[in-house]
Specification:
It is a single chain. It is built from seven helices and five strands, in the order ααββαβααββαα. The chain is mostly helical and 148 residues long. It has two domains: 58 residues, Multidrug-efflux Transporter Regulator, Chain: A, Domain 2 (Orthogonal Bundle), CATH 1.10.1660; 50 residues.
């Protein structure tokens, strides 16, 4: 190895050290987060001292690593979770309804929180039951109260 190789980490080397991908490192660079880096032309190098600081901070963090992206769900996984067909999800997307989705090129992905929010929004309160004596008036009051 040359002396120059010891002066910095390449993105591939740092990705191995931090157990992440070079794409995740590029996103962190773009956002101004992560270890200190420098550019020479199109090349990117990470300073070893900043890498040591980041790994030390990762060890002290509780919860998820800041480099780990939120896992996205596929259409097949969401359809199985909601017990509907993949085609029904496609129809929801076409109509602009259903859970919020992310389009990455031709791939469609969903965030777990968006699916949970969608399910909460779909929750319906049961209609109250009434005696036969005043059922029509009570149902009418219920419908007026809830705009049915």
């Amino acid at each position: 190895m040359t002396d120059k190789a010891l002066d910095y980490y390449t993105p591939a080397q740092l990705a191995l050290v931090l157990n992440t991908t070079t794409a995740a490192l590029a996103q962190r660079r773009h956002r101004g987060l992560g270890p200190v880096f420098y550019r020479v032309g199109r090349s990117v190098g990470y300073l070893p001292t900043s890498v040591v600081d980041v790994t030390r901070n990762l060890d002290s963090l509780t919860g998820e690593s800041p480099f780990a992206p939120e896992p996205l769900l596929t259409t097949k996984q969401v359809a199985a979770w909601l017990n509907i067909s993949e085609g029904a999800l496609g129809n929801f997307r076409w109509a602009g309804e259903g859970p919020v989705w992310i389009s990455i090129g031709r791939a469609v992905r969903y965030r777990r929180q968006d699916i949970e929010d969608f399910m909460k929004a779909q929750s319906k309160a049961p209609l109250p039951t009434y005696s036969h004596r005043n059922s029509s008036a009570a149902v009418m009051r219920h419908r007026e109260a809830y705009g049915i």
